[in-house]
Each structure stands twice: as structure tokens, then as C-alpha cells.
Design goal:
Elements lengths: L13 H22 L5 H8 L3 H13 L1 H15 L2 H18 L5 H29 L5 H26 L13 H8 L6 H8 L4 H6 L4 H9 L2 H22 L2 H9 L3 H29 L1 H21 L3 H19 L2 H8 L8 H13 L2 H12 L1 H21 L14
Helix pairs in contact: 1-6, 1-7, 1-9, 2-3, 3-6, 3-19, 4-5, 4-6, 4-18, 5-6, 5-8, 5-9, 6-18, 7-8, 7-14, 12-16, 12-18, 12-20, 14-15, 14-16, 15-16, 15-20, 19-20
Length: about 425
Amino acid sequence: MVALSPSGSGAISRTSWHAVSAGFLGWTLDAFDFFVVIFMYDTLAAHFHVPKTQLLWATTATLAFRPVGAFIFGLLADRFGRRAPLMANVIFFSVIEFACGFSPNYTVFLILRALYGIGMGGEWGVGASLAMETASPRWRGLLSGILQSGYSIGYLLAALAARTLLPLTSAQLPFGTESWQWMFWIGGLPALLALYIRMSVPESEAWKQHRAPDLATIGRTAASQARLLLYLVAMMTLFMFLSHGTQDLYPDFLKNAHGISTKTVADLAIIYNVGAVVGAIIFGHLSELIGRRYAIAAALAVSLMMIWPWAFGASFFVLATASFSMQVGVQGAWGIVPAHLNEMAPDSVRGLVPGMAYQLGILFASPTSNIEHWLKDAFGYRWALAGFELVVILGLATIVLLGREARGKAFWHPA
């Protein structure tokens, strides 16, 4: 194994790969568990006998409760280390996801999706801090892109599951169960990831060097960074509007505005999530060359150019090309986020501050689908999505370029 130093010399070590793999797999499986719902709005609305607009609140509840998980698991990670809270988090969200498949009514389902939001909110902050603290500054941008691409891989896997499982009838499934239940039961498998973390991922050296003596110290340190946290929350709110505004309702948009079948929608989702993975890795690595802020702005420029064909394209080829390119830009910008947030955060609260900024951003952006649905009723589906994202992209580029960065910051020092 090639040891990594904070100066960034050497190759990517086995330790780094294990830490990034744990964060990547956790975020992949977490995203899968989230995105299965967006492919089943019609199915779940029919099953629970509620309007489809009411199902949107289940997604909103998941997003709104994510800051709770970021706070709880972030505090634990800064006080007791990254590994144990990450393992507990993975087990928690897996159990809740599995239980969603047994929901007897909409009320229970809504409560479970809110609880799932706590698990989803805790995973990113802890997993990202562990991965970025282990990575060499030389490779941090690339590994940041790989880590964040797990979100798109999870979306892609959800699309594959929707394409293969949802068309099946109860007669084709064991015990007369329904296909929507299996979508959630598969989501319980990530609990096995805890075993991998336990056996292969070492504790963060950065945490060992900067560990706080108690929870009160962590709270005081975080409170002293209120101005930084406000800036990061504002930035992450716009990042959330960017991603969820282009993803959560897009399958429904393709079905209703273009009359595309569920199977073809899944095919398109697979295509544009491949673009998302490509974008996250390319722009994550580019951020090492031109800086975090300029790389984010470059990725946003790609998405800005794609708004019109992405929303108004009239053929499968145009929609596929535009949605692929749109997500190259969207997730290209997102691929830089793990490195950018962790570099900006103070050493002793790196488990808490990035995760809280990330998840408070999603709290404020949690009504994204509801806002776009309201805009759809007022201006039509195409103009709703296009107009919303135009404003978001321009706003996000402005706040990022006016901010600062700490590219290459050393997280720990050899003894």
C-alpha cells in the first residue's frame, strides 16, 4: 500500500479507496432508496387511494427530515469517530426502507418516509468527511466526483428496478405480493454495507488529531462559524434546487408532457444518469486544475445551454441528448461539493458542518417538487421546469463565484 501524506504525494492508497468506496456505496444505496418513490407516484397513489399530489409530500417529508439526521450523526461522528456512526446510519436507513414495503396506508408510509429522511440525512456528512479526510489533496477532486456520483448510480439503479420490477403482477411475484413492495424490500439490502465498513475501513486520522473533548465543545465551535454556515446553507439550497428540480419530477414530466411510456422513461433515466456520473468525475477532477468555484461555474454553463432542448425537445433523440448533457452539468457541479464543503469546514466539526449545510439546504429546497407542480398548473410543464432551472442556475453561479474556497487544504499532519 502507498501511504498518503497531507502534501498529496504518492498514488491513491488502499485506505483511500476503502473509505471512498464506503461513502460511495452508502450514498448509492441511500439514493436508490430515495429515488424508487419517484418512479411509483402513480402506483402508490392508486394503492393508498390518495391524489398523486399528496404523494409528493412523502418526498417532501424525506427531504425535510434530512437535517435531523445530519445533526444527530454529525455530532456523533465528531465526538466518537466516523466509522461507528456510519455503520449505525446504514443499518437505520436500511431497516426503515424495508419497513416501507409493509405500509398498510398512506399515513404510515408518510411517517416511514420522514424517518427514512433522518437516515438519508446522516449518511452523506459522515461518509463524505471520512472519504475526504482519507484522500490525498492531490486526488481529492477526482475522489470527490467519484463519491458524489454514487447519488446518480443510485438513481440509475432505481430506474433499472422500475423497468424490471414494476411491470410485474402479483401473480408473477412470490406470496401474492406487489411489485411496489419489492422496490422497497430490495432497499433493505444496504445493511450489509455495515460489515464492509467494519472490516475494511479504518478510522480517520484527521478525526483522531482534531477530536473534540465533548459535545459542548463541538456545539461552541460550530456556533462560532455561524457566518460560514449561513453562506454554505444558501449555496447548498440552490444546489438542491438544481438537482431536485431537474430530477424528481422529470420522469413524471416525460410521461405527462410527452406521453412517454414508463419503460421508455426508465430508459431515459438510465441515459441521463450515465451523463451524471461522467460529469461528476470529469468536473471533480477539473476542480483540481482550475479551482473549485470555476469548475462549478463551468459545469453550470453546460446545464444552462441545455435548458431549452431538455424541456422543449420533441423527439426521443433530442430529449436523450439534452437530459444526458443536462445531468453532465448538474452532477458535474455536484461532484465538487464533497471536497469543497469539507475543505471549507473547521477541522474539529467536519463531521457536522458540511452535513448540516448540505441537509439544511435540502430542508429549504424540500418543496421543490411542489413549487414546480404549482408552476406547471400556472405556466405548463415545460415552462415550469425551464424557468425554474434558469433562475436557479444563474443564482447558484453568482453565489459560488462570490464565495471563497480552500482547495488543497491539509486535514491532518503526520506525527
